[in-house]
Amino acid sequence: MNIARASIEKPILTWLLILGCLLGGLWGFATLGRLEDPAFTIKAAVISTGYPGASAEQVAREVSEPLESAIQKMGEVDRITSVNQPGRSLIEVEMKSTYDSTELPGIWTKLRARVRDAARDLPPGTREPLVNDSFGDVFGLYYAVTAPGFEDAEIHRLATYLRRELLAVDGVADVDLAGLPEEAIFVEPELALTVAQNLPIQAVVGAISEADEVVPAGSIEAQGQRTVIEAPEGSDSVSDISGLSVGVGGEVLNLYDVARVQRGRVEQPSLIVRHDGTEAFTFGVAGLSTENIVEVGKRVDARLATLFADMPSGVELNPIYQQHEVVEEASNAFLVNLAMSVGIVVAVLALFMGWRASVVVGATLLLTVVGTLFFMAIFAIEMERISLGALIIAMGMLVDNAIVVAEGMQIAMLGGKSSREAATETAGKTQIPLLGATVIGIMAFAGIGLSPDATGEFMFSLFAVIGISLLLSWVLAITVTPLLGHYFFKRGAAGGAGAYDGALFRAYAATLRGALRARWLVVAALVGITVVCFAGFGQVRQQFFPNSNTPLFFVHYKLPQGSTVQETARDLARVEDWLSARDEVVSYTTYAGGGATRFMLTYSAEKPNPSYGHMIIRTEGIEEIPALAAALEEFGREALPAGEFRTRRLVFGPGGGDPIEMRVSGPDPEVLREIGDRVIEVMEGASPDILDARTNWREPELVIRPDYATERAQSAGVDRDDVATALRFATDGIAGGLYREGERLIPIVVRQPRDAGTGLRDQPVWSETGQHFLPIEQVIDELGHEVRNTLVHRRDRVPTLTVGADIPPERTAAEVFVQVRDAVEAVEVPPGYSLDWGGEFENSAEAQESLGQQLPLSLLVMVLISVLLFNAVRQPVIIWLLVPMSVNGVALGLLGTGLPFTFTALLGLLSLSGMLIKNGIVLVEEIDLVRAEGVALREAIVTASVSRLRPVVLAAATTILGMLPLLGDAFFVSMAVTIMGGLAFASVLTLIAAPVFYDLFFSRGERRAREAALAAPA
After folding, report:
1. Signal peptide span per the entry (predicted)?
2. What total number of domains does the chain contain?
3. CA–CA separation, 979 vs 779, rounded Å?
4. What is the pTM assigned to this prediction?
5. Is 70 found in the same domain as 4?
6. Among candidate residues 631, 640, 642, 596, the one with its CA nearest the CA of residue 615
């Protein structure tokens, strides 16, 4: 039975479908998970290993190399990079994109086993490697807490209390604290007293380490009962530590006799955080992946409101980023955009087809959208930027199915047929072509949705939502649309006025007949226009992902390598003063020594470095960012000439690195630096748009190295460790133990008093053999100076230096890359060294390569469907000839607006191709049907094309106007322009080019058939 006729004759089933879509859509909208950006798995883990006392090159050679060698044996590994600093190795392992999130836990277990086995062969003194596989966790609810005037211990108790309370909130997965004041207990022996008493520093360190050590004390059993004995409590106050006894030379001394004990902040903390110029700490809240982040955020806000209502005066909560509010605002904006799009569709249909058709098609469109939300909830597809945008992208194709069926029914009923007859006739002609065209439209996005890399994972919901919505639109078009048409459309008198007798239809028919007569001229014009537009498309700016529409931007500040975190913080304080006077600035958060907690999936913090500073600046709106960022950058470069001052916009989507990057790999660090300097010189000479060119190895640092006098020192009973201990005591201090304060473990540091006034050459060193102190000059020849690399980067076990550069805000990375590519690739490197591009070029190339691997299969399916639909070759060829010409309108639209061709514009081009093929299939199928009735070729072409004029024009008009709400969205604007400009031109292609191509392909056969008929005997 014909499905459309059955939907009218058995309306109860159709009404159940309508109610299912409506009620299911409402349920889906209420229960759908909500995110800002689609989740994509960061398939990376970080292995951190301490090797105190080793240089960066020693760390690379003795720690990173063995670990990387073991990790590289895993078949799942795609890339290994490491950053080696004095005393610390940081290895980042990226897995191949073909592994999804469900396979990663097993891979991380295997990685830990490899690292654990390799760690057994690491040199003595190396700390246990720590594997962090939660590197990609996102703490989307991100706050700064200021508490001026409070003691550090009180701030720690406050932070611990907040973390404990928030972890108890339903749906919270983790809470990350950062920027807390770092304290230590400093034991500062008076050098003169310790030397006079022959009290070695090691004895002080030993007494402290044993004072608060947790040790077992055994247990006793009596009458079948086992009772545990606890060890005596250790020293739990500064005064207790001061009173510790130290045995030396048969005598007992109290620590306060020879040393000053005090509690205070460390001089060079790992991270300093300020919010709006006030010292702060931050906490980030991560929600469970199964939870709706909007609901989790509301629960967290409610709990925070309760907690801070009872906080002491002066403690303030300052939001830095609230993902749940961004998501809720985006969801509401989507509803507005969707309502506007549906309203525009209904208004256009009412204007050109009458209010009855607009109600029928508009209702079908609304049911398609809400039904899609229902299936999104069933398949656990979150409501986020990409999935919401997919609904609007699909709008043009969604409405097309309903328009074709509604228009066919309306025309047939005006000709006197009943609704059942009209539904049977219309659906019988169009349901299979529409289904084939719908599947082709879905397959146009399969390459992106099925791509296994991060970009494919990021964009998967686009493919899923478009697939669901288009298939549902076809189902509803052949069920709900006929039923609603049965209720709303009026039946006319048989033999009434022709449906296509209007002036517009007559004008189109006349134009088409002229085009058919001048078909070769039309083809030449189309080819010429296409060639010109393709040339123009080459002038369109290229961009991977556009800037975010979140009103945030960043400052990156880098002092010369070796600068202290305090110096970095002082410099950034000047920037804070400048920002405080700007009205357009809402808030700013400053980080010295590192970056922020990952508060967005697309945000990636810099590696910890004392000389690095970072700022997150919030404005009222994104339109204020360009001018503010330009003024701030001008101020920063002028006021802080010693450092590298850069501003950076937040970008949508996965990626990373600088806009322009070139990697130099090879064995010798000195040669790498020389090549890197040469690459920078060539880049800057090739383009004026290369800004702040730099290398990730940064500047070498001055290192002091004592020359150990082996013979003299060994005769005196002083070994190398004794010399190192004396120097460490005089500078950073020696870790002597831990001071327990509740759950906190505060280090106890034994060091020389800061006001001692003695230099390194004046330090005494203890001789264990002689049981006395010696001047350090007696056991060393000199304190030598060397310049060494303190940031050694490796990539896949090869030392690799990366040259990075920024570009002006008004330029795209692709534009500048074209300017410098040939010149940089011409740089000659010695044998054993190589140059490779990174940054946006590499990210874009990898995404396109992954997409390219999927596209052939998608195209093959699309071509096969088009061939099977017609059971012929010529008709599909006609349709596919139109596809390259779809670029014409895209080029004109993007060049006219000055927008770049982004990854989202590529989505628009794919959508456009799907719409064009769909219209072409239905038009060519209609021509075939008219010809099958015995109508002459050209008359059949004109008749069929005229009958398709209204559906094609209305589908194009509704889609183009439905894109208007997206013109204000930074993420989708280039896609909207692509679809609007491309579809306007594609409509001409469908209505003029397709008929002309059909005539060219079939006119010879028609002529031969006519000649054969004339030659046949009567």
Report:
1. none
2. 5
3. 78
4. 0.80
5. no
6. 596
